[in-house]
Amino acid sequence: MKELGRRWREFWESPGAPFDPPMVGTIFLLLLFGICVMYSSSSITAWRDFHDSEYFLKKQALWAIIGILVFFFFANFSYRRLERFALAGIIVSIILLILVFIPGIGKSVGTYYGRNFHRWIGIGPYQLQPSEIAKLAVVIYLSAMISKLKDKENREPKKFLIPGALLLSVLVLILAEPAFGTTMEILFVVLAFVFLFGFPFRNLLLVGLVSLPLAYLLVDRVGYRKKRVEVWLDPYKFRFDEGHQLVTSFRAFLDGGWFGNKLASGYAHRYLTYSHTDFVLATFVEDFGFVGFLFFFGLVLFLLYRTYVLLKKVSDPFGFYLGAGLLFILGTQFVINSYVVTGLFPITGISLPFMSYGGSSLLVVLAAFGILVNITRRENLGV
Fold first, then answer.
1. How far are the Cα atoms of 181, 231, 338 from residue 345, in angstroms, in the given order?
2. Domain count within the chain
3. Quick check: is 200 in a domain?
4. Angle formed by the axes of helices 359-375 and 55-76, to 10°?
5. What DSSP string runs through 133-182?
6. Is the model's pTM score more than 0.85?
7. Rounded to an integer, what distance in angstroms lies between the CA atom of residue 284 and that of residue 46?
8. Where, by residue number, does the polypeptide cross the bilayer (predicted)?
9. How many angstroms separate the first and last alpha carbons of the chain?
10. Which of 106, 289, 325, 379 could be disulfide-bonded to 100 (CB atoms 3.0-4.6 Å)?
11. Crossing angle for the helix pair 21-50 and 55-76, nearest 10 degrees?
């Protein structure tokens, strides 16, 4: 027993490892687990649409292999160099966000309520989602900006004009796609940086009050968003059309019980829209039950908390802000997706990290964790 305890302490403290073994191990455990869940959630849809139950699995596995390479690249690429590319990164993101609206380059998808979504750029048989890249670029840019302007004498209003214009451009372009959920993610991370920066609360409150009419217009005057709020408030009223997705998600949680069912055999696997993307959590619970749900989120909470503990030891301002921003936006993504699927938040297109099908999302998540692993390397913690 003592020997087991000693080995556990050695693993936890990792005296000779440049990376934190518990953190890296949890990342790859979630990646493997997520691919298995995505396969179970997508197999029926893949067979129905492509006559190949492994269609989505093969594509996701390819993205996972590329993502692992991206992860190790950023884990070994000094995060301090990212500060030099912060401005270029956000400008490139803006250009990519513009390209999604150009016919022949951007890919649009129509919906049953008559709205076209412009969120992707076609690259041969694959598609790139610039809004995912923009999230990473915004965090890097904000981290670089705040680390340079942390001194009070540098907080002149004119120094915020260009950064504000760039951030506003990103938000407007993403909102125009439309990708309301991603817009919210970026807004939340901007607010988090505002608090980290020490922006006066009185001014922050004023900005919030001024923004309320805009928020009202975005929800009330834009048809599909207003409808989503109505569906969220009473999904059973719309259970045969717009509310079917949320009602089916509720049923999946109920059918899953404590320990789940036979894989890919439930009602949600056959009838839930986006069962392998935005609503993959519902089909996961249908398969693995509430115990599986607790296991998955236990791993997520452990990973986020372990990263938080390590980030507190980082003394470099840019590294700390960058790590905090990435941790916050990843945590926000987990929370929003789980809230949407369980009916605690109106439906919006936010993927679940590691589990949802999608190459762009998986690459950005692994890139973000690669950067976090690099920031929390042993030599950066002073231990």
1. 11, 11, 9
2. 1
3. yes
4. 20
5. HHHHHHHHHHHHHHHHS-SGGG--GGGGHHHHHHHHHHHHHHHHTT-HHH
6. yes
7. 17
8. 21-41, 61-79, 86-106, 161-180, 186-219, 279-306, 318-342, 354-375
9. 28
10. 106
11. 150
368 Cβ neighbours under 8 A, 6+ residues apart: 136, 326, 329, 330
124 sits in the region (left: phi over 0; alpha: psi -120 to 50; else beta) called left
Q: Ramachandran region of residue 257, left (φ > 0), alpha (ψ -120 to 50) or beta?
A: left
Asked whether residue 237 is domain-assigned, the answer is: yes
User: C-alpha distances in angstroms, 30 versus 301, 341, 354, 375?
Assistant: 12, 19, 6, 20
Instruction: Say which amino acid occupies 124.
Output: G
> Which DSSP category does 103 fall into?
B
Is 15 a member of any domain? no
Residues 121-124: contacts with CB under 8 Å, at least 24 apart: 121/96
Q: Report the alpha-carbon distance of residue 326 to residue 186 in Å, rounded.
A: 11
Order the strands of the 106-110 sheet from edge to edge: 106-110, 116-123, 126-128
Which 8-state DSSP code applies to residue 344?
S
Q: Identify whether 306 is part of a domain.
A: yes
Query: Locate tokens 């922050």: which residue?
Result: 204
| pLDDT tens, residue order, the chain (383 aa) | 666 566 545 544 444 457 889 999 999 999 999 999 999 999 998 998 898 999 999 999 999 999 999 999 999 999 999 999 999 999 999 999 999 888 878 777 655 445 566 777 877 777 888 999 999 999 999 999 888 776 555 566 667 778 888 888 898 888 887 788 888 888 888 888 877 766 655 555 655 665 666 566 555 545 566 777 777 777 887 777 777 888 888 998 998 889 888 877 778 888 887 888 889 999 999 999 999 999 999 999 999 999 999 999 998 889 999 999 999 999 999 999 999 999 888 888 789 999 999 989 999 999 999 999 999 987 767 65
Q: Cis check for the bond before 157: say yes or no (omega within 30 of 0).
A: no
Note every long-range contact of 260-269, with CB atoms under 8 Å and residues 24 or more positions apart, other chains counting: 260/285, 260/286, 260/287, 260/288, 260/289, 260/291, 260/292, 261/286, 261/287, 261/289, 263/40, 263/287, 264/40, 264/41, 264/43, 264/44, 269/40, 269/41, 269/43, 269/44, 269/45
The DSSP secondary-structure symbol of 77 reads S
Whose tokens are 């993307």? That residue is 277
In this structure, the number of other CB atoms found within 10 A of the CB of residue 172 comes to 12
